[in-house]
Design brief:
The protein is about 40% helix and about 20% strand. By secondary structure, it is an alpha+beta fold. It has one domain. It has a four-stranded mixed sheet. It is globular, with a radius of gyration of 15 Å.
């Protein structure tokens, strides 16, 4: 998980100034990528009408350094991740790509880096795919 969070720190949210852009801290950006959940509590606490549309990782465990299961939380549902490590971050990227969900504006730099550097997916190709589906 540290490798994923390092990407958020190295590729911080863009400064505000564009239309609709809101400046957030790196801590808030980390919270948009992964949320930690104690395994003794119900998962339904993370679903509800106030949740955002973009998927995020829900890490379930007894403590932040003892994670047992990862989920991709999206649209009030939870998709279990096969990976039990920071590889779940790549499943999060895949969820954005497969479901055609746009990246969170604050995390656009990080996801674009994963898209272009790790998966060699051209930025224009995803835009073209989104236009064809809409």
């Amino acid at each position: 998980m540290a490798s994923l969070l390092l990407l958020v720190y190295l590729l911080p949210p863009p400064p505000s100034g564009k239309k609709g852009a809101v400046k957030i801290s790196i801590r808030e950006a980390v919270d948009r990528v992964v949320k930690f959940h104690k395994s003794c509590r119900s998962l339904q606490e993370h679903s509800g009408p106030d949740q955002r549309r973009q998927p995020y990782i829900l890490a379930v465990g007894t403590a932040r350094n003892s994670i047992h299961q990862y989920y991709i939380a999206m649209d009030n549902g939870f998709l279990p991740c096969k990976a039990r490590s920071s590889l779940s971050a790549f499943e999060l990227f895949k969820a954005h790509y497969v479901f055609g969900v746009s990246y969170d504006q604050a995390l656009n730099g990080m996801f674009t880096f994963v898209q272009t550097t790790i998966y060699n997916i051209d930025i224009g190709l995803k835009d073209l795919r989104a236009k064809l589906l809409n």
